Amino acid sequence: MRQSRPTTLLLYGALTPFSLLWLIPVMTAFMTSIRPLDEIRGGWWSFEGATFTLGNYVRAWDQGLSSFVLNSFVITLGSVAVTVATGALATYAFTHLSFRFKRLWFFLLITTMIVPIQLILIPLLPWFRTLGLDQGARQFIGIILVHTGFGAGWAVFMLSAFFRDVPKELLEAGQIDGASHWDQFRRIVLPLALPGIVSFAIIDFIFVWNDLLLALTLLQRDFQPIQVGLANLQSPHLAQQDLVSAGAILAILPPLGLFAALNRYYVRGLFAGGTKG
Amino acid sequence: MLAIFTLFYLWPAFNTLVGSTFRWGLLNPWNIARPDDWDFVGLQNYVDTLSSARFWNAVLNTGLWLVVFPVMVTLVSMLVSILIWQTPRAGAAFRTVFILPMTISLAAAGVIWTFMYDPDFGVLTRFVEWAGIDFGVDWGPLHFQTSQWLSDPGVIDLGFSQIRLINLSLIVAGFWAFTGFGVITFTAGLTAVSEELVEAARVDGATARQVIRHILVPQLKGPVTIVGTISVIFALRTFDVVWVITQGGPAQDSEVLAVLLWKQAFVFLDSPQAGLATALAIIMSIVLIVGAWPYLRDLTREQR
Predict the structure, then answer these.
(1) Residue A121 maps to which CATH number?
(2) Per CATH, the architecture of B24-30+39-302 is what?
(3) Is the distance from CB of B272 to CB of B182 less than 8 angstroms?
(4) Facing residue for A28 by CB, picked from B96, B112, B280
(5) For B84-139, how does the pLDDT look when each residue is reduced to its tens digit (9 = 90+)?
(6) How far is A10 from chain B (nearest CA, A)?
């Protein structure tokens, strides 16, 4: 819409301060993380005699954050890989095949988007013990499979929006040429729906990376991801805001980097979820 | 996919449902394969839950989330999206600012907001001091205190119970983290409003108000429903922010249902309360499924 100059000025006048206000929390964490603790006591916004340092990061890293970060990557990349691979196959089945109880399955899948994860959380611990997934690195397998199960609804829901856009004619032509379902999936659907799959992978990455509850409940100390490390560092009784803020920034960076690099895909994925839902 | 889904979602969910009719704790978990250890109590867990004061305290706190959070998210994200929609040139930059907190984990958001509220060097605390609005109010049922965001911000006295304002401090943190979702959804809705339609209406002499009423409002109905529904779901499931900032405290002032459930299952290990926790999980799930029923039905119907 075209507006007069005063209206435009007014709009910018409203949006600019509001955006800056919105950035203050992130700014706070960032500034706290790059300055010594005793300087922060005077407020991070006072710059008199300010020193900037990466010392907080080094100390946080040495105090165990490094292994938390590594665990986070293992859990997140594993979960995204399994969820995307199985999710794409399942979505193909849901959009292009017919099988028994299809609507019931779909309904059950979609409930994962709505029920609280607490619905499955409590029996998981004894269940893992039964399956032998409660010890050592096998815990990673356990949590990856839970993330896959609970992310299945989102996967099928979002991916089917993209899979349905694949023109029917292409698939029919493929069938005439004698292509199997596997061929069709690999040669036709997958390449065409690739942008959608990338969008979903990013959203799933952010979702799994940011999970606190599952990891807090299911994993032992040495296998926990950064979010749990952060929640444990955070304590009202300890004055270690320098370490905590450095940890928070480290926990933010990977999803943020992904968002910055692939912003377009991320927003489009959420768009698809938003408009179709 | 369906196998993993069955093993790691349907099966545990079924266990929760069945387990909620037994008395057990995680030190000696209820096990479907060991019937000798079963301590069947029927619906007693549900009765106990529904008659415990602590449950209703958590319901009150969660209720505050359920009312305030969706309203804040929907109104602010709609307003921001409309403003951004009107500034096409810098729109993307503004939008990024509001979407950015969505990529931040709720645990990190919680940490960041404890800095904001810090009684010594929090931005908000210092701002209140600097602006000279550091005061307390006793106004009828409302007791209110600026600057003690997380320790004792005040209450609204209802006679039979108190609404504790500390929940609002936490809601603001969640709101900051989640508003980006609303901005994305509303922007998707607004992009569908055709420029020509608006221009045509202008040429025909429609006032700004008429444009808003007859073009914008109908177009935004869908997004309002989506943002409303998803933020209600978010509010009822909320755990991370509360856990990181207050763990439900002081005392149980900010304890929401999800936090109560977690404590029952994983903190009070000396008394077997996991049965109660599973009952609570079932209650929450039923409320959500019933509440989101129209949404679920529409989605399933699409599937043929």
Answers:
(1) 1.10.3720.10
(2) Orthogonal Bundle (1.10)
(3) no
(4) B112
(5) 887 777 778 888 888 888 888 888 888 888 888 887 777 777 777 777 676 767 67
(6) 10
